[in-house]
Amino acid sequence: MKRAQVKPSPIRHRDGFRLHFSFQGKQHRRFFIKDEDIAYALQSKVNSLITYVKYGFKTVPQDVSVADFVFNTAVNQPYQQDTPKPKSGMKLLTLLSEYAGTMSLQAKSETTIKTEEVHIRHMERFLQATKNKRITVRELNVKFFLKYKQYRYDKGVRTDTVNKELTTFQLMMQYAVDNAYVKENIVKRVKKDPSQVPDFRFRTNSEILEALKTGKHTKREEKEIKRYRYLTPEEIKRLASIAEGTPTHLVILVFACTGMRRGELRKLQWKDIDFTRNLIWISSQKQSRKRKEVKRRVEMTEKLAEKLKEHYETSHKSKWVFSRKGKQLTNDQLYYPFQKLIQGTEFEGVGFHVFRHSLASNLAAEGIDQRIIDSILGHQTEEMRERYRHLYPQKQQQAISKLSYM
């Protein structure tokens, strides 16, 4: 038997890590892990396991490959060739905890993992509030999840949020099916409710206030309508002036001029910026249905390029464009300074996503081709385009009026 060539560290792969080992002249790689500490801990287990296999301290079961045995043992998952034994008495609380422990091993963004963890905590609170902590996975039915939906609605939660929570539980139950804990993914039979707000158009703050004057909307509907505010160019200038002289000023300019999502800005590296051609390459998983990372190109304005060059002179030692002590900014480090700046101003309550809404809406109002807006923002769905398409007619009418046929 050839000596196993074990490397001490996991392989860096995009913005995460992959476990690996070399055995009998063949390379084996598996799993995509976002968290660096988890990746190094699991790689250490892989290194130990392959050493035990080499010296005969562990025996690989029949009909199971070395790769399946080592990788799946390291992450406490059943071998692919094995038929998992049903856990008929598994409690839902146990499944919630087990599924949460596997999320970092899946190809999910950090934001998605945190969101699903929040959904799991809401389910745990529901079980406690309804005194259902002992319910088993096999006792779950459609009625149970309908009760959960009503519980969340009673808390004032938006329909879209409840639907996202159901998606998380559907993924969790599919995990349970794959591991033979249950035979059916019951959440697939739970109907998701349509949004209760019929008008999803982006509007200015004055238009929103005018729409709410009717008094016909519930509090939940009012909150939903306010989410679709966009800022006019003049408002963006006023907001940027509030942040003048602070690190948040450049953050606002980048958001406003590129329409980046928050996660995309956090992942932005200096290698993604081409100062020669004034281009920014934005990495995203949102544009890929398979959650593979893709890049889109956005042109920089001269002023934005100038500001970024100035920032580069003091920040180029870190690979991240926006960092703290050389490390990538966390969501909180990005979010809270911005919220502190706008507190007590006309912009209080808006988030970073308002700049994305604003870029799409302002470009549409200027009559920019739909395909160009799609390429800048990475939009793929007709539902998203409908939110700002109503801004086109005025410009179209102005253009047609210039054709003096009569």
Automatic annotation (TrEMBL):
InterPro entries assigned: DNA_brk_join_enz, Integrase-like_cat_sf, Integrase_catalytic, Integrase_recombinase_N, SAM-like_dom, Tyrosine_recombinase_XerCD
Domain Tyr recombinase: 226-401
GO MF annotation terms: DNA binding
Signal peptide (UniProt feature, chain positions): none
Organism: Uabimicrobium amorphum
Alphabetical GO biological process terms: DNA integration; DNA recombination
Protein name per the record: Recombinase
UniProt entry tagged with the keyword Transmembrane helix: no
PROSITE patterns: TYR_RECOMBINASE
Keyword DNA-binding attributed: yes
Source taxonomy: Bacteria, Pseudomonadati, Planctomycetota, Candidatus Uabimicrobiia, Candidatus Uabimicrobiales
Keyword set, alphabetical order: DNA recombination, DNA-binding
